[in-house]
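Researcher: Quick one. two chains, 649 residues in total.
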Amino acid sequence: MTALVQAEQLSKHFPARRGLFGGPRGVVRAVDGISFTIEPGKTLGVVGESGCGKSTTAKLVLGLETPTDGEIRFDGADLASLDAVQRRHYRKSVQAVFQDPFASLSPRMRVSAIIAEPLVTNEVVSAAEVRDRVAELLDLVGLPSRAAELFPHEFSGGQRQRIAIARALAVSPKLVVLDEPVSALDVSIRAQILNLLRDLQDRLGLSYLFIAHDLAAVAHMSHEIVVMYLGKIVESGDARTLAHNPKHPYTQALFSAALPSHPDERRDEKVLAGEVPSPLNPPPGCRFHPRCPHAMPRCGQETPTLAPVEGRMVACHLYA
Amino acid sequence: MSAAPLLSLQNLSTHYVSQHGSRVVRAVDDVTLDLHAGESLGIVGESGSGKTTLALAILRLLPPAARIVSGRMLFEGEDLLAKPDGDMRRVRGKRIAMVLQDPMASLNPLFSIGDQVGEPIRVHEGAGRASAWQRAIGLLKSVRIASPETRVRQYPHEMSGGMRQRIVGAIGISCGPRLLIADEPTTSLDLTIQAQYLELLRDLQRQRGLALIFITHNLGIVAKMCDRLAVMYAGRVVEQGPVAQLFNAPAHPYTRALLGSLPRMSDNRERLTAIEGQPPDLSSLPPGCAFAPRCPMAAPRCATQAPPAFVLGEDHSARCWLAAPVAAA
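Model:
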């Protein structure tokens, strides 16, 4: 089975001005040489704190940013070398669902027009076909067909997120980028949406790139997980292996900081000191070493590379 | 716990009334809760369940459209509702303090950290500016801010999100309150920063014997931090009791459903039990139990009769007909 998405040494650097009048230019290494693959019909979860580059990664996969370095292969073809027709095809194959369904749906459009928009822009379709497709999509995401004639404000948050999902599915994508799809929703609604996403994956064979800060939700939804810190992958592998037995000190701290789902679930807590450094000026060597409880002298000098440790990849000198 | 509770809410109701009285939203409806000194209580609910209104009612900081229509509120034996505004002002920030969700919105960008942390001390204890600053340095140290001597002279924009939230915490504890109300204190923080902040709050609570009210939609925070839990739905406390008991043997179907809907680290590939339907519209609640339309175990009487709070054990009660003693049902 060939991978649907294959990212090789992907980097995205943003120029940043320092000082009020320009001055010497710095570079924010938002994403710095990361590699990952997304298999057909599977979910890749991306985990990390603010500034770790997970949203930039999503934008790179969506084709909304061009990589500074490295390449993304989709269905075997390098994105950078696509011609206009292939590029249009790629845009159809990759869709997104965002965090806030109150901001991502136009309040002036009827639901039918919202869902049909990607269809109308990307394909030549008759009005009757559009109507049928909208009805089919509404049914797919569990909304009644009369929803088509209503406006977004007539729906609750969970229903709006269903509309956003229907819109993403309108052009039958292969990959859907889910950027915090449930964090703006009420607790009692989250499970509905996560279940729906799971069902849709089973029925349609979709691949997901799932980004969220709720680790339990990521662990629940993902087949593979990638943990990022300051633009680099520190650990990646099978979701279960990673969630049950994290190896990288940062992953360990992150998962121990995740809130328990039961009061009896007392874990030995490893509360990290300090905060994420500025990506404008990341620490030398391993970017995590200033906060790492196991830091050794070599961590400040040598950047560790990803290497296999007990069935997953870890970038840490502890295991070298 | 035989001692008198620190805070006792008795049948408290707070309604929002529209300008002409045509629409009434029962944001908080007949809430009875006790909180003892040094205890931490989690109040969990979805948006619109009335948890923030309840917190504001305790401090009497409600917006003009809201009225406390009935009930009593005793704090250290004094009736807070009977106090004139001036007396209430001496309670707020001194004996009961509150930490809000967004630290950027609760700090004034134009005043230095020292001025803001020291302000309650100057207001409530009449301290001078210099001595308030000295106290502020100590407070910053106790919320684990590095080099507090420099930080007091700085302004909020020079701090990170986690530091701002800790500064807000320092303001909260500045006058040695007995009760701290934290309204979603960590939603804007990153995971590792959230862990730092929760650990800080727990240490402060232990050192100072603070009572804590945690308002959150996150059951994980409750599991980690709280002794007791009150679950709110549509303005009512539908179930309350010791945290372990509610997590192990929830009596109300809503509590059970909420717990079942949480993804857990340990059960990777299972389906979540979703709660069907949508949260109710508070201005047109059904006559019976507000959860009945979404409840998998609803009986005919649930649609017409609202259940009272049935006592299930020491300190554990639920508003559900299923919890009714057999004789009454």
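Chain A has one domain: 5-319.
Researcher: Thanks, that's what I needed.
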